Hints:
By secondary structure, this protein is α/β, with parallel strands linked by helices. It is built from 9 helices and 12 strands. The protein has helices at 30-37, 56-62, 70-74, 81-86, 101-115, 131-143, 161-176, 188-194, 217-225; strands at residues 2-4, 7-10, 19-23, 48-49, 52-53, 63-66, 94-95, 98-99, 149-153, 180-184, 197-202, 205-210. The strands form 4 sheets. Strands 6-9-10-3-11-12 form a 6-stranded mixed sheet, with helices on both faces. Strands 1-2 form a two-stranded antiparallel sheet. It has a two-stranded antiparallel sheet with strand order 4-5. Helix 6 runs parallel beside helix 7. 42% of the residues are buried.
Amino acid sequence: GLNRKGLRNISFDVPRGQIVGIAGVAGNGQSELMRALAGLLPADGTITLRGQTLTQDALLHHAAFMPADRHIEGVASGLTVRENATFSALEKFATGGIMSRSKELDKVRSIFGELAVKAPSMEAPILSLSGGNQQKVVIGKGLVQRPEIVIFDEPTRGVDDGAIAEIHQIINKLADEGLAVVVISSYLPEILNLSDRILVCRQGRIVEEFSPTEATEARIMYAAVH
């Protein structure tokens, strides 16, 4: 029963290990919905995780949000690859308020390995990386927090074709590892390729749900505009 400006009585569930795709014409409430689920926007209604109702602040610790525009919200353009990968969770590398550089470097090496980040070095400027590799660093930054819910808003916008396939592999791997994954995308082949269930958003409401076997681009678009 989630409500706020732009959202009307939204209800759905995301089981562990499942990718739920949310489709619809841009501007119909999808982005506001995802930000509310991640604790970034207040909303009326109830959000539960494993049966426990979460406050907006608690959501920030359980959900990772990967924004659509990495240049505005995803990366700090003046920082290095290492700094971008870890700055959202520096407390995880500190004891008694003192940073452990070795712990931080171990985590960045782990991110590089798990996500196949290609960069000249950890200390390279983040903007020296390709769009796809910048996006992988954004994903890694979110995963440092060990979330149980991972939310992607337009995960492959502005990346090349080779990186799209790699990012899709990462998203599928997160679901295989038991995380609950939500993907918003205006690119319908992406939604069809990734999703275990597809919800269609129109005028701030969920108006239709499809299984992968039922869904087609034509059926999704019809639901999105009629």
